[in-house]
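Support reply, case 0932

Customer input (verbatim):
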Amino acid sequence: QNDSEVKQLQHRMAPLRNALLAAMTVIAAAFSGIGRSAYASARTRLSSPSMAISEAKNADGLKYVQLENAKGDTAQAYLMGACVTSYVKDGKDSLMVRPDAKMDGSKPISGGIPFCFPQFGPGAMQQHGFARNLDWELAEQVDGDEPKVIFKLTDSEYTRAMWDYAFEATYEVTLGADSLDTVFKVSNTGSEDFEFTGALHSYWSISGVKNIKIAGDFEGATYLDKTANEKLTSDKAFVEITKETDSVYEGVGSLVKLQDSGAGTELSIQSTGWEDTVVWNPYGNEPMGYDSFVCIECAKALTPITVKPKSEWVGTMTVTPGAL
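Our regenerated output:
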């Protein structure tokens, strides 16, 4: 009786089996040229989860790490400066690298998400500190559908010549299903308090400066207009770029949205720890590519952060692309 039931089941399943075989034949025939390559890549990705994270070098020899999530979105981050230079979701890159950027290690990378640490802007040490000039250690890789890498930077003779403190900084970058998530931790590994300012000097890709509005808790906020070196009060709930702009909005953080009517997109930038927002655009500067990006920076720029020995400070940023 069992043999009879098996034969009946096989008979009933035959049409479905034949239909599946036919469909597979059609699909296999369709995958030629680029299609075949994409199919092979997809098979490799499915059969080898480690492909979610890979290491490589650019044409100038700079090392970077590439992340790919289960949806096929990607992110790229260089070890120099732990600088994320690309975040592609649904085929669109939210980040921009300036056309005048040096990608050979001779200068910090001008684009993506460069670090300002342990100093924002000019001051006692080099512009924006040393973190963006140095190769960070790729300390950890976590594979999976939402891959993650952790970069690490510690004090050295080079850093102590500018900022004489013992520290450990880690930068966690996760390529989520719908967002790019970062966690920046600064630990005091020494025996005395230290202070720092900093920012994620993020370059966001836009369709043109005339098409964008930056929405957030700007109305009534105090800001430093660095182009005029004066403190002002904002009377609008959004920021537009109509001239050279370099403004530090004190206490404006948590959630800022980049609305681009030309692209039909809205980029949500959610943060904790970073209490200020910096908006920068070199309006009119063609070599910098001013009309294709705006910097909206999660920052702690005006009042220094104090970290006591054996303590740490944490700043997070979550970037979520969406439709306007």
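We compared this against your earlier run and they match. Two observations from our side: The two ends are 63 Å apart (CA to CA). Residues 1-19, 21-50 have pLDDT under 50 and may be disordered. Please reopen the case if you see a mismatch on your end.
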